[in-house]
Amino acid sequence: MNILDKIVADKRKEVDLKKSLITPSQLEQSVLMERTSTSLATALRNSTTGIIAEHKRRSPSKSVINQGLNVQDVAMGYETAGVCGMSVLTDGKYFGGSLDDLILARAAVNMPLLRKEFIIDEYQILEAKAYGADVILLIAAILDREEIKTFSEMAKSLGLDVLLEVHNEEELQKSIMPSLDMLGVNNRNLKTFEVSLETSKTLSEQIPDDFVKVSESGISSVEAIKDLQTYGYQGFLIGENFMKTDDPGESAKEFINELNR
Ligand SMILES: O=C(O)c1ccccc1NCC(=O)[C@H](O)[C@H](O)COP(=O)(O)O
Q: Where is the Indole-3-glycerol phosphate synthase domain positioned along the sequence (predicted)?
């Protein structure tokens, strides 16, 4: 069983348990259901740098990255640095995140927040909205076309942006539909954990211009971003490169300053 299959098997059990504890109608009571979301896709279209900075304590590929930081400090640091949005990992077992991280980040900043999660059920989309997200991630490798359609249309009905993540051409071709805002290419091979920015470059031509192109994972230099921009990418999801430092906000700020030079 590869890591994605393991994560999804655990996620199904987790979602079933959560549904028995908090019903969808209880989630709908959240005051954040009334909040008007901020579009990450619009922020990326209007930006020259396009950084989406991630809060990531640990990961299956790297084990511990940084467990000692306060999520609100990280969020405020990223916002001050001028990132376009923040990705908040909410998976607990594999990434050390939680929905508490999302709601705490929401309380601290106004920028768009992406709920970075392995979404396999509509319940998690309701959770995303109820805990203050502006954007959800859908991963083509774990969903069929019908699920992508149902989930993305539900997200749009809640006012959320949708970032659809692909790893290869087959996933891309099965996923293209109007209810998506951004198409993300993940440079990390989830079977080998190998990272290659060539994945983003190879797939770039096949992504229709109506979608904001986002390159995800393994980005650690300004040169890499400048190169990816020539392939039409407007968004760059960066986790470890910032989170491995003592002050991710400061690292993001220096990175963005260098990108603007
Ligand atoms: O990061 C992992 O090891 C990982 C393993 C299995 C599934 C997903 C994984 N990462 C999620 C992400 O998409 C990244 O956290 C994100 O793109 C940032 O990547 P990086 O800049 O390389 O930390």
A: 4-254
